[in-house]
Design goal:
Helix content is about 45%, strand content about 5%. By secondary structure, the chain is mainly alpha-helical. The chain has 4 domains: about 20-105, Cytochrome Bc1 Complex, Chain D, domain 2, CATH 1.10.760; about 115-205, Cytochrome c-like domain (Cytochrome Bc1 Complex, Chain D, domain 2), CATH 1.10.760.10; about 235-340, Cytochrome Bc1 Complex, Chain D, domain 2; about 370-450, Cytochrome Bc1 Complex, Chain D, domain 2 (Orthogonal Bundle). The strands form 2 sheets. Strands 1-2 form a two-stranded antiparallel ribbon. A two-stranded antiparallel sheet has the order 3-4. The protein is globular. It binds heme C (4 copies). One heme C binds next to helix 14, helix 16, helix 17 and helix 21.
Length: about 450
């Protein structure tokens, strides 16, 4: 009886579906309209794309992104021999309809990988997740998420996107040919990439999310060095030993990189050590920790100070918190990390690359109003119009630069000259070294005048 009912019900449902007229979006996608080809010919009926052509997956991209992409093809911000004429043939209503249609399809997991690609994949993953600080390559994961599912309306889902398409887009962003609603973020992110990196990253992105999950070697022997020569080069990250000391080093690195998560009781803002000491404290001229190991104990705010006491001071001043105890796990692990990365550095030497290279103040002085204008142009896209930073899943992707969760007035960074030096050498994140000394001072004056903790 139950089966008969179920069959009857199924019959009703299919009959209903068959009689309901397809929506405008479905008609456009599946049959086309007038001279416009069916989108499905190239993108598939479920938006699955064509793996061997540069025909992208549309599933997973979401309504606003799809609609925005069609509009940019139509108004010329994004030019493509195939899509530009198609988009120009659509009315806004049709764009909305077909974007709605594809926004409802979920992406399928991509095919698993050929075995021989494991090294390329390992490299691709490394760039994807961590970038490469020496080359100023920002990890893709920072904006697209570790699993490539994008975030919010601005950062598209790229996991499982077709390899050929990803390659083509990275080249076109790098060349500045694809502009669009993304405000140049991708152009900056793609600029440092060379052809090999593009190949490796595109391969990795195309299989991101595959089932069964990939088994990729976590690290590899083929990474280029990450710090400019002439300055000290810390040991590679995969050289951390598998010993009790190594375990402390790994914990210390985690604290340095995610201070809010692993040293929560001792901090009063949202900043991690690595937000100001770039590249996990490894990068020359960006507050490297190996230089501190070489030079401490030394005079600091009028007293000869040990490195441990200097790290305690960082918690009080830069983290707006309180000092972790000298013999406790937080300080011990942090010191293990910075000592490990300094192996081979000459103790007591001059340590070229230390701190942030000083910047001379322009004769005309700093102008906070000019700084405000520069901030809107060059910084707000990541740090927010109100300096609040950007969060994803409750974690900061871009840290706040003023307000209650930023650094306080006691921090070293709150001194104009130090802040100007920091900005000139590290910001904008994807394009550092492009601020003039004057601009760095103007921005520093602007940031200093913003509200922040005492
Ligand atoms: C003849 C093949 C073809 C047809 C038909 C086609 N497209 Fe495309 N589509 C492409 C190609 C190729 C690209 C990549 C363009 C580029 O490189 O910028 C693309 C890109 C797109 C993008 C941008 C995707 C992204 O990830 O940024 C959207 C959205 C899109 N198409 C929607 C549509 C819709 C809607 C239709 C039907 C009205 C359609 N396309 C019909 C080939 C096609
Ligand atoms: C600073 C943030 C940021 C970083 C880092 C970043 N992206 Fe993007 N990405 C974006 C934004 C924003 C867009 C949307 C651009 C647009 O709509 O014009 C985008 C778009 C893309 C697209 C086009 C998606 C599509 O469907 O057409 C691809 C592919 C892509 N990114 C890959 C990467 C890869 C690979 C990396 C790492 C090398 C990377 N991105 C790093 C912000 C970023
Ligand atoms: C808001 C930015 C900021 C944060 C967050 C921050 N620091 Fe610093 N730190 C600085 C600045 C600026 C200096 C001064 C560099 C100089 O004087 O050239 C500095 C100096 C140091 C020094 C001395 C370096 C030297 O070469 O003399 C150590 C050690 C240090 N910080 C450790 C840490 C640790 C550990 C954390 C996390 C618990 C941390 N810092 C968090 C900005 C920051
Ligand atoms: C592409 C995104 C991006 C842009 C654009 C950018 N930053 Fe940053 N900024 C970052 C990231 C990411 C960090 C943290 C570094 C890390 O985690 O490795 C940071 C850190 C900072 C910090 C130290 C930490 C804090 O929150 O106080 C300051 C100050 C700062 N940026 C100011 C600026 C200024 C001023 C500009 C404009 C000239 C700018 N940034 C442009 C991404 C960006």
């Amino acid at each position: 009886m139950r089966r008969v009912l179920a069959l009857l019900f199924l019959g009703l449902v299919t009959a209903h579906a068959a009689t309901r007229p397809p929506t405008l979006g479905a008609r456009l996608a599946l049959d086309g309209l007038g001279s416009i080809h069916a989108c499905a010919d190239c993108h598939g009926s479920q938006g699955q794309g064509r793996p061997h052509f540069a025909y992208p997956k549309l599933a997973g991209l979401g309504f606003s992104y799809l609609f925005g992409a069609l509009r940019s093809f139509a108004d010329g911000r994004r030019l493509n021999g195939i899509m530009t004429p198609i988009a120009r043939g659509l009315t806004l209503k049709e764009m909305r309809a077909v974007a709605t249609y594809y926004a409802s399809s979920r992406p399928r997991p991509p095919h698993p990988v050929r075995r021989g690609d494991r090294f390329r994949l390992a490299r691709g993953r490394r760039y994807y997740e961590h970038g490469d600080m020496g080359d100023r390559l920002i990890g893709c994961a920072r904006c697209h998420g570790r699993r490539g599912r994008g975030m919010g309306m601005r950062f598209p889902w790229i996991a499982g996107q077709t390899e050929a398409y990803v390659k083509e887009q990275l080249r076109s962003f790098r060349a500045g040919a694809r502009r669009g609603p993304g405000l140049g973020l991708m152009r900056d992110a793609a600029r440092p990439l060379d052809a090999h990196q593009i190949d490796d990253i595109a391969l990795y992105v195309s299989v991101l999310g595959a089932r069964p999950p990939l088994s990729i070697p976590a690290n590899n022997a083929v990474m280029p060095p990450i710090v400019p020569r002439r300055t000290f080069v810390p040991p590679r990250r995969d050289a951390i030993p598998h010993t009790a000391f190594g375990a402390a080093v790994r914990r210390g690195r985690a604290i340095f990189d995610h201070t809010d998560r692993y040293a929560h009781p001792y901090i009063g803002n949202a900043l991690s050590c690595s937000d100001c000491h770039m590249g996990e404290g490894r990068e020359a001229e960006a507050g490297p920790m190996w230089a501190a190991v070489a030079l401490f104990p030394r005079s600091y705010r009028g007293r000869i100070t040990t490195l441990a006491a200097r790290v305690q001071a960082a918690f009080v001043q830069s983290e707006n918190g309180r000092a972790p105890p000298l013999d406790g796990p937080v300080l011990t692990d942090l010191l293990a990390y910075v000592h490990w990365m300094s192996r081979g550095e000459v103790i007591g030497a001059h340590a070229p690359g230390r701190g942030y290279p000083p910047v001379t103040e322009p004769k005309s002085g700093a102008d906070a109003a000019r700084g405000a204008g520069l901030y809107v142009q060059r910084c707000a896209v990541c740090h927010g119009d109100r300096g609040e930073g950007s969060r994803y899943n409750d974690r900061f992707v871009f840290p706040p630069v003023w307000g209650p969760l930023s650094f306080g007035r006691r921090a070293s960074l709150a001194q104009t000259s130090v802040l100007a030096a920091f900005l000139k050498s590290t910001m904008p994140y994807t394009d550092p070294g492009t601020l003039t000394s004057g601009a760095a001072y103007d921005l520093a004056a602007f940031l200093e005048a913003r509200p922040r903790p005492p």
